[in-house]
Amino acid sequence: MQNKIVKWLITLGTGIGIALIPPPADVPREAWTLLAIFIATIVGSIVQPLTGSAMVLSGVVAAALFQAVPIERALSGYADKFVWLVLAAFFISRAMIKTGLGNRIALIFVRLIGRKTIGLGYSLVFTDFILASFIPSTGARSGGIILPIARSVTETYDSRPDDGTAGRIGTFLMTMLYQCEVILCATFLTGQASNLIIRRLALDQAGIDLNYSIWFVSAIVPSLVCLVLIPLMIYRLFPPEVKETPNAVSFARTELEKLGTLTKPEKILLAVFIAVVALWISAFWHGIDSTVIAMVGISVLLITGVLEWRDLINETNAWDVFIWYGGLVMMAAELSKTNITTIFANGVASVIGGWSWPIGLAVLALVFFYAHYAFASITAHVMAMFVPFLAVTLALGVPAGLTVLLLTYFANLSAGLTHYGTTPAPVYFGLGYVTQRRWWTAGLIASVINILVWSIVGTLWWKLIGWW
Amino acid sequence: MQNKIVKWLITLGTGIGIALIPPPADVPREAWTLLAIFIATIVGSIVQPLTGSAMVLSGVVAAALFQAVPIERALSGYADKFVWLVLAAFFISRAMIKTGLGNRIALIFVRLIGRKTIGLGYSLVFTDFILASFIPSTGARSGGIILPIARSVTETYDSRPDDGTAGRIGTFLMTMLYQCEVILCATFLTGQASNLIIRRLALDQAGIDLNYSIWFVSAIVPSLVCLVLIPLMIYRLFPPEVKETPNAVSFARTELEKLGTLTKPEKILLAVFIAVVALWISAFWHGIDSTVIAMVGISVLLITGVLEWRDLINETNAWDVFIWYGGLVMMAAELSKTNITTIFANGVASVIGGWSWPIGLAVLALVFFYAHYAFASITAHVMAMFVPFLAVTLALGVPAGLTVLLLTYFANLSAGLTHYGTTPAPVYFGLGYVTQRRWWTAGLIASVINILVWSIVGTLWWKLIGWW
To answer: In which domain, by residue range, is A8 found?
Structure first.
């Protein structure tokens, strides 16, 4: 009880403390209040006087109550299509579990490369690598495709979030998959949706066109280094209790024989699955939104009886994520509408105006990277900070090619810091295999590795291929 | 299975049939597609090839897929503050049940006037009458205050939605409460929120100021007649199996003695409850939105531990209602943005241009009334139809006072037709005591009584007090 009061004091103290600081001259009162509530919500979801979701809902309520945003906008995150893509991903993964198809696919993977836990992880990362080369929807790709398989793998190894068995394999696997996912976001122009925005901004502001091949060639060397180092780091940090599974291959073979041929619900799900993926891949031609495609898939599963309505409304994990992710998306979106980030960026730039460009670039890139703690999407981060930071670094005399590439990749990699950094984060995190403390610890260590590799190996590689 | 195919043929046939009709000249293709999807969704939620909620979700998906509205707007109902008020009402009523406070209040009511079932109903209607005289939020009033008590009353009588005991008391009580609620909406300027919009429109268009006392005095005579007739009709239509409860009073007395004094959670809930109601009542002065007030109340219940987070996410009924009400609110709001209702209204007006005013008024008022089948809120109905219909009736020569009052009250009363007619409708209906067929049957019969009483008794009363 006393413990709880201390937690409340920290959370409310942060919010009230910031709110009492007079806002900078150009910042409207509402924007400053929102900043205070946002930071208090984040602090509160770390120290947890209430469960994180309840903290966020309280933050949404506070934002409306203290008139930081009107109620209509305070609720706007719950109509956000990316939030609904997360919901849809949960429902599809429920169908994977219900029909047993996810289990079957997992067993096939286990049969193929299941001799070691890390091999299992890489088989999924490899799948995600292929997908990222043409599917820019991270929510769809990870939440809809990789996650259901990962979830079945962990269930196959009797590793579950709630009963003390998370450490067997789930904690390691979910952390590895998400951190690798973030690297894959950075690796392809199609790695995630707002990379296309970055391409536009870089062309407009610095005259550099990061087309598909330039993007990939520049990224692949540091990307591969990180795809080796970061899983190894996570393996050391959260060593899975199940490390070697010598009997897994024969076990999987036996289980697959028991399962026999595909059942009718499995066939329908597989067909829906392939159709949804095919439509996602071909989105460039038909232009149908990926949330719409996912929701059509769910409608088909409902119509064919593969999913029943009660499967959806009883998927309470999904509603939990819906509440907190929707709330954070709203706050981040509303904050990015204010001029707080711009003022912040300009303030930083004015301080370091006289420095040499390598030091200036280093400081700015780090600030740019760690600012992602305040963003619930890469898009919001890019929209708020990419242009001012690019402008400042160019003004400092940093070669255009170098700063464009560094900021571009950092915009993606920084999403690994938190459990709300980009669309798939709440999907993986929401399963409950990884505590917030562990998630953030892994994110922080991975961020150091990513920053070192991309700024040393990357910079040398880009010099070598003539980008600066 | 064959039955299911027929149901799908009816549902899809309706939608495709309407979609294939070429839209009127001024109606954009998207608006017409939306109309087709809306009507197909309504038909589908009546014949039910899928459960109603799944039908609505499929309608939302179809609206986005067939580009009737972009996905961002298709999901907008899920950020609607009235939809969230419904969610909040469910959560508050969960607390009422969890703490036992609802049960205690119900027992007090039973002790007071529980000798007959209809007496129980009237005790709640009387409470609602008092509340409606100063609380314009119907969702708050009914969903947050009346419903938890009603739900506890039905539980006390062992009448539950799912186990065949709905007919004991629940079906009768929920139907009576909702139909009376609609009459109370019409009775006060503060009966529901958009009455304030009506007041503005009537002043602007016809120069008539329906202030608080004029509104009430004009309504009270037909209102009282309906508050007697309609419960009697419902009593005949859905006779509660539990009609007389001679032992209820002594039973309640014994139970209340067993319960003893208020527990701590009950006290906190009662305090929150009174604070929320007090803030709702005083909204005129402080201007805090009623959804915000309700959500602050829920935050307080979470913070104090009266409700736990899992109570919220496990309240699956709430999520069910959230999905379908949010979908219908969106469709109705989007339809009212199109010019379809205006074209429809103008079409009607042009046909009856040459008629005498009493016949013209009768026809127009009936069309105005039954058009509410297409609306998920009184506000939307008023915004779309009040002005054109008022204009047409005035042009026909109908006395301004008469047509203003008739359209004003009909705008409220027509909400009784469906289970989505106004905010509290999905709250009462969503409990599951009343099937959709029964709900609509009661709504249709009540509509005939309401129309007859308000147009005969009302018209005479308004003549007597000099309104025309």
So the answer is: 1-74
